[in-house]
Amino acid sequence: MNAAERVRSSRPEAKPGTPRKRILTGIRPTGPLHLGHYAGALENWLELQHEYDCYFLIADYQVSDHANDLARVRNAVWEVTLDWLAIGLDPEKASFVIESGVPEHAELTTWLAWFLPVGMLERNPTLKAEMEAIQAPDDAATKGRSVPVAFYIYPVMQVANILLPRAHLVPVGVDQLPHVELARETARRFNREFKPIFPEPEALVGRVPRLVGTDGEAKMSKSRGNTIDLKDSAATVAKKVRAMYAGPPRGAKEPGLVEANPVFGYLDAFDNDDAEVSDLKERYEHHGVSNVELKDRLTRVLNELLEPMRQRRAQYEGNMARVSEALEQGTGRARAIARETMEMVRDALDLDYLRKYR
Ligand code: TRP
């Protein structure tokens, strides 16, 4: 089943006249997006935008680990938007949202923080791992700085991101599942103790939960410098693939283990010709296939995927006013729903103090 079919099979029966269900998901603006983002999430979004009312968030409140490099964060807002447009997300169909352009995110975060026990954050495995990385002396972005309070509470804000548009579905990578679980628990608790405002959001995980880095490390990540970016030129892709880690040293004609060679992981993720890939694996394990042959194939496959994105990107780069307009429209739409939700929240929490003696 390909990505499109998988999404289709999980689609709810759309009754005519019923409003489309809402999706919220987001990305932190830290730099250009890479193949890990694409296979793990973006590819799904492309399908989902046709079927759901989608809110794609640029989470610029949630990059306090990059406080020492604000210029990079501000620039990344454009990088991310251009990448979204380049892959074919349609700002007429989906709303591109700047998080800080909807300050209700901050407001709801403050209220929800009342109902999220500290212990729940302390047990959150994703948060734990990220805080350790920030503090590690070799983390390229942070050089071992201490964890900002804003970083510690970002899962709370992520819960607010999801609940503010009253989203039904949250397409994310596996590492984000603990946050979606927090959102579900918070929605249940709020609905039970105050008023039933929030749908219990469900997570939807992408086709390739985790793409390894070009260096063979467990994850593609900007700070490790082991990414292939969506905006990389054909020559850059060729160079990065040529330098890719391809398993333990092995003679060109020596058989090898498919699982030990990440090039196959990439072919599994991006090569649509399943029959040829399994044939290649067969030959690799029994007769040996040179890494050069594997890498040439991967380079071709990746450049076929990325070329239309490069072209679309170039068009938008020549029309940044249109890019800006996409953000403005999407943020405006998100803000309208946010205001609606906050009315409901204020009512549920009985915040209209002044009504009493009016
Ligand atoms: N924390 C997510 C990440 O690092 C990005 C994100 C922010 C997000 N807000 C969100 C994802 C809300 C899903 C829903 O990838």
Q: What is the strand arrangement across the widest sheet? A: 1-2-3
What's the total helix number?
14
* Average pLDDT taken over every residue: 93
- Measured as a percent range, the helix fraction is 40-55%
Largest sheet: 3 strands, parallel
Q: Give the class from helix and strand content and strand pairing.
A: mainly alpha
Radius of gyration: 22 Å
Chemical compounds bound to the protein: tryptophan
Number of strands: 5
Report the sheet-strand fraction. Answer: 5-15%
N-to-C order of helices and strands: HEHEHEHHHHHEHEHHHHH
**Oligomeric state of this protein:** single chain
Shape summary: elongated
End-to-end Cα distance: 61 Å
- Extract low-pLDDT stretches: none
Structure notes:
By secondary structure, the chain is mostly helical. About 50% of the residues lie in helices and about 5% in strands. The protein is built from 14 helices and 5 strands. The strands form 2 sheets. A 3-stranded parallel sheet has the order 1-2-3. The model has no long low-confidence stretch (mean pLDDT about 95).
